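Everyone, study these two lines:
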Amino acid sequence: MVDEAAAAAFGVNRTDLRILGLVHAAGTLSATALSAAAKLSPAATTTAIHRLRAAGYLTRTVDDGDRRRAVVALTPRAEKLIARVYGPVERAGHRVLADYSHAEVALISGFLRRGIAMQLAEADRIRALPRQPDASTA
């Protein structure tokens, strides 16, 4: 629900918000790396990059290390909005965690890491399932 509210605050869809999060975490990413990280087709990634550039959230520049490659990065506007939207969430989370001992936080962290790994594995399994015909055409 937080990401849904954040997407609305940014005026983007959830996929575009996920892309902003991936670029925020990495600093800069090539379109190819972003496509792999987001598990999107190159065409879908390019379309999202165009939308986010038009919205003023991403820049696209030539990679200093490889002039043949372009990279995307967040604009200062996007960085400020991320801080305004997610900064309070981070601080609230720290306040909640302050009520737990180090051992409890370690247990919770381990549980969350295992849960995330399980969810990612299940998402990969589901993506590998054969696609069903569109119900409207069946």
User: Anything to note?
Assistant: The longest strand covers residues 58-62. Helices lie at 2-10, 14-26, 31-38, 42-54, 76-97, 102-128. The CA atoms of residues 7 and 13 lie 6 Å apart. The radius of gyration is 18 Å.
